[in-house]
Amino acid sequence: MGRVVAVSLAAGVVAAAMLVVAPFVPPTEAAITGALLCGLALGWALLAVLSARFTDQALRWAMVPALFMGVSGLLLLIVGWPVLEPLAWVWPPVMLALVVSMFVRTRRDVRSRSGRWLLYPVLTVLALASVGGAYQTVQAAVDASRPMPGRLIDVGNHRLHLSCTGSGGPTVVLEPGAGMVSAQLELVAPAVSEQTRVCVYDRAGRGWSEAARTRQDAHQISADLHTLLEEGGVPGPYVLAGHSFGGLYALAFAARYPDDVAGMVLVDTTPPASGPQSSATHASEEGSSDLGDRLATLVSVSARLGVTRLLDQPTPDSVRSTIEEYGQGGASAQEAAALRDLADKPLVVLTAAVGQDPADAAAHEDLARLSSNSVHRVVEGTDHGGMITDATGAAATSRAVLDVVTSLRTGQPLAE
Fold it and tell me: Which of 103, 126, 145 is the last residue of a domain?
């Protein structure tokens, strides 16, 4: 019985892995989830069949989770997204009830100690997944019921969330760092809005924004932002303030739309690339894109179980977009490096003192040379994330933004 349980469960895991990478399964959340469930269903079906064929402890009840997982998986593969949301409500309570029943039957029907101790951890994981799935579904519904600040604006094949407050010019546009949302700028945006208009937005797949079907590198993100501001009726030129990866997007925007940029603040920015990308590297990235899409989707499925909510990534879309953002980091750094000169437009470059990488500090010093009207400040007492999330860092960031605004209004150069 121990061998039967081990072989059946292992076969289910292998089948799930093979289906996830199968070319006939599209790399969407519904399809990947369906593939996983179908693979795991095979494992439970094998347990029912093999235990009846090769042991005197027939576990025919294993066909029940096999059927439930198999039918759910096939519906997701065939119908797709319309089934995913209803199933998110049905699956957790039904699976939890099945797990309780399977615990009882395992204790009663499996006389093999090794068989029981192989099944118990699997059932525990399924129980935790059921509880986590229920929590995630309810919490997602609560999140969706909260009023959205600002509005959704169509930028082509998806809609982005934009919220602007304050009055006066020039308008400041804030770019949060990798994996972050506009709400995390809550210490910076209000301080800036007291003296000028400030706009925050969520990149595709984050916060209130819809997921995109296009590759989200700095080139595409800056194009979408340009469309968002135009369609949102936000006149330029703008002061762009980007934190971390957001700095790459600000640089790429300035390279592509120089007339729409009045000034810039780079907040502990990820350094742009220092040299051109080789054609071999580009070919390698293109060749692995499908597998990368599948792996990103597979990881994003964990959001359905409430796991990634602990990491401030509450939805599958936010998980996937964050993974893709890091995956496109090399391309974004290359595209940001296209900006060679800001002329005399005011530029403040900030570097967090805590956990400072000397190489990044040197790169920031180089970035300050993009403009003849620039300053480079090292902010003591805060780290990379704290530049926008703690009081010290947020105050320094807000001051830098307002210094650029003041320089534009008065025509005076920036001061240290």
Answer: 145
Residue 54 and residue 58: Cα distance in Å, rounded?
9
Domain of 317 in residue numbering reads as 151-410
Q: How far apart are the first and last CA of the chain?
A: 75
Residues 155 and 96 both lie in one domain: no
pLDDT confidence bin for 314, thresholds 50/70/90 = confident
**Residue 170, preceding peptide bond in cis (omega within 30° of 0):** yes
The model's pTM: 0.84
Average pLDDT over the chain, rounded to an integer: 91
Residue type, 416: E
Q: How far apart are CA 225 and CA 85, in angstroms?
A: 30
Show which of 110, 145, 180 is a domain's final residue.
145
Joined tokens for residue 174? 């804030």
Closest CA to 380 of 359, 403, 351: 351
416 domain residue, yes or no: no
For residues 109 and 60, give the distance between their C-alpha atoms in angstroms, rounded to a whole number: 10
Cβ-based neighbour number of residue 369 at 10 Å? 13
d(CA 242, CA 346): 14
Within a domain: 216: yes
In 3-state terms, what secondary structure has residue 166?
A: coil
- pLDDT tens for 119-159 read 999 999 999 999 999 999 998 888 888 888 999 999 988 99
Buried b (16+ CB within 10 A) or exposed e, 183-208: ebbebbbebbbebbbbbbbbbbbbbb
The answer on 198 and 106 residing in a single domain is no
Give phi and psi for 41, each to the nearest 5: -60, -40
Starting at the edge strand found earlier in the chain, the sheet holding 347-352 runs: 151-154, 159-165, 198-202, 171-175, 238-243, 261-267, 347-352, 374-379
- Count structural domains, the chain: 2
Report yes or no on 245 lying in a domain: yes
